[in-house]
């Protein structure tokens, strides 16, 4: 830790450098918990695949340490992409809506869902819960000036604001040091059971 800064201030500065995809690839429940871990010395600066070498370099400068190679056990840096729902396959289970950390998916139960491309951070968290595999990631191209440090910072700040707003809307309080959740919550188990029943009804219709 930099001796001239307290933990809270340093964590805020670290968090401001992260891309705010909230993808959990770092092993923490979001960008802020990872920032807290970096500031306290509990995590290395190279666990953010979406940020890649640029974020690692920025974090190294802030933390006054040498840059590290990206920890590829956490994933690799990919080209910018957004989620796309194949709406003809969507069964309206709403599991992807629950999984999206920035409220970039709209829809209602038993109605097809749609991704707001401009708000999607490309975190891919919506893909695993989808029971019908109707979500794919689609690469997006950005003009060169959209990859400047200032533009990336503004994009990250916008995603952070949506993430915080979602937390407030849901009344969630996120622990800053807990790892990413891996255990399915009881509510999700019930949801998956309901989805399984819907899929079985659809299968029986097709086979009639």
Structure description:
By secondary structure, the protein is mainly alpha-helical. It has two domains: 7-74, Electron transport complex subunit B, putative Fe-S cluster (3-methyladenine DNA Glycosylase II, Chain A, domain 3); 81-140 and 178-207, Alpha-Beta Plaits (2-Layer Sandwich). The chain contains six helices and four strands; from the N terminus they run H-H-H-E-H-E-E-E-H-H. It has helices at residues 7-17, 31-40, 52-63, 95-99, 149-170, 186-207; strands at residues 81-85, 105-106, 114-115, 135-139. The strands form two sheets. The protein has a two-stranded antiparallel sheet. A hairpin with a 7-residue loop joins strand 2 and strand 3 (114-115). Helix 1 crosses helix 2. The protein is globular, with a radius of gyration of 19 Å. It starts with 6 loop residues before the first helix and ends with a helix. Residues 173-188 have low confidence and may be disordered.
Topology:
Elements (H helix, E strand, L loop, with lengths): L6 H11 L13 H10 L11 H12 L17 E5 L9 H5 L5 E2 L7 E2 L19 E5 L9 H22 L15 H22 L1
Antiparallel strand pairs: 1-4, 2-3
Helix pairs in contact: 1-2
Question: In short, what is this structure?
Answer:
The protein has 208 residues and is mostly helical. It has helices at residues 7-17, 31-40, 52-63, 95-99, 149-170, 186-207, and strands at 81-85, 105-106, 114-115, 135-139. The chain has two domains: 7-74, Electron transport complex subunit B, putative Fe-S cluster (3-methyladenine DNA Glycosylase II, Chain A, domain 3); 81-140 and 178-207, Alpha-Beta Plaits (2-Layer Sandwich), CATH 3.30.70.
